Amino acid sequence: MTTELISAAWAAREQAYAPYSNFQVGAAVLTKRGEIFTGCNVENLSYGLTICAERVAIGTMIAAGKRDIARIVVVADTDQPVSPCGACRQVMAEFGDFPVLLVCKHSQLEMTLGELLPRAHTGILNR
Ligand code: THU
Known about the structure:
A hairpin with a 4-residue loop joins β4 and β5. The chain has a 5-stranded mixed β-sheet. The chain is built from 4 helices and 5 strands. With about 130 residues, it is α+β, with helices and mostly antiparallel strands. The relative contact order is 0.16. Bound molecules: tetrahydrodeoxyuridine. The site of tetrahydrodeoxyuridine (THU) has 15 residues, from α2.
């Protein structure tokens, strides 16, 4: 299943719209029921409007009516595993404390959301 998830993320990366950074990223979400939803980064001339691959994949999953994430894979053609941005860490944390597998050219690194973003839910809205 992980092999399939990684392949899905690489395939999604092919669709990246990244004319400004020329840095293509792919993401694939696996739900607890075994469904896969993918995303790629979508850039904009107004750079700050760029949406990362992780958030596109999560949005696609949500639009399909699913919420239970088992794991997420993020792929980039780099020497070191890519580091998800702070906004994506927060958006991923909204849906649980699951493993995030960061895959690059010749290696991979797995971290949990809790490791990527400690205390994501603590002290907000009085919770
Ligand atoms: N990017 C992602 O899509 N995901 C990441 O985890 C890191 C960065 C995108 C945003 C932007 O389009 C490009 O990569 C360069 O930062």
